[in-house]
From TrEMBL:
Record-linked InterPro entries: DHFR-like_dom_sf (IPR024072), RibDG_C (IPR002734)
One Pfam family cited in the UniProt record for this chain: RibD_C
Domain Bacterial bifunctional deaminase-reductase C-terminal as annotated: residue spans: 4-169
Organism: Agromyces allii
Protein name: Dihydrofolate reductase family protein
């Protein structure tokens, strides 16, 4: 079974989007360099960001997201982001009407069921959990092995929190990676058990 990683770009004050679900400059680092991060040619980062991010992306076998993120992105038009093999959507609603049954998206009710399915689909590869409400629920359930943050140099002031509505204290170990890129600081923290 692969590692479970809670991940997102985040503002210095801990938000992954503003009150209107807009990320603002949180993803500027993805277009601030000259090294192509993927085949699109649109994402270009610094060499330091590439060296940190590309190997991580290549290890992801499944990503867990909430229905809200799925709806905001229009389900990425049925193509998982970043070349991920599978997306598991946590939702209490059925898949959208007319949804392509061949698209590698799986709709489940509850974070535990999502984790079980994502780990099965990912095998020994990483299960990535999108930060936000679902990410906070997965953290609170004790299912996260590592927290990864791409900290953008911006203060949003309010918005959608990285850890969603997670309550209580959750201890992390000292960072195992601190990488400075262009317009971003990449951080990795193991979760204390």
């Amino acid at each position: 079974m692969g590692k479970v990683v809670l991940y997102s770009s985040v503002s210095v004050d801990g938000f992954i989007a503003d009150e209107d679900d807009q990320p603002g400059p949180l993803f500027d680092w993805l277009t601030s360099g000259d090294v192509p991060l993927d085949e699109s040619g649109f994402l270009k980062v610094s060499q330091a960001s590439y060296d940190h991010t590309r190997p991580y992306w290549d290890q992801i076998g499944a990503t867990i997201v909430g229905r809200h993120v799925f709806d905001l992105t229009d389900g990425w038009d049925g193509e998982p982001p970043g070349g991920v093999d599978h997306v598991v959507v946590v939702t209490h609603r059925p898949k959208p009407e007319g949804w392509n049954p061949e698209a590698p998206f799986h709709f489940v009710d509850g974070v535990e069921a999502a984790m079980t399915l994502a780990q099965e689909l990912a095998g020994d590869r990483i299960v990535e959990v999108a930060a936000g409400d679902v990410g906070g629920q997965v953290l609170a359930a004790g299912l996260v092995d590592e927290v990864r943050m791409d900290v953008a140099p911006v203060v949003l002031g309010s918005g959608k929190r990285y850890f969603g509505s997670a309550e209580g204290q959750h201890l992390l170990e000292d960072p195992v990676a601190v990488v400075q890129g262009e317009r971003v600081l990449h951080l990795r923290y193991p979760v204390r058990r």
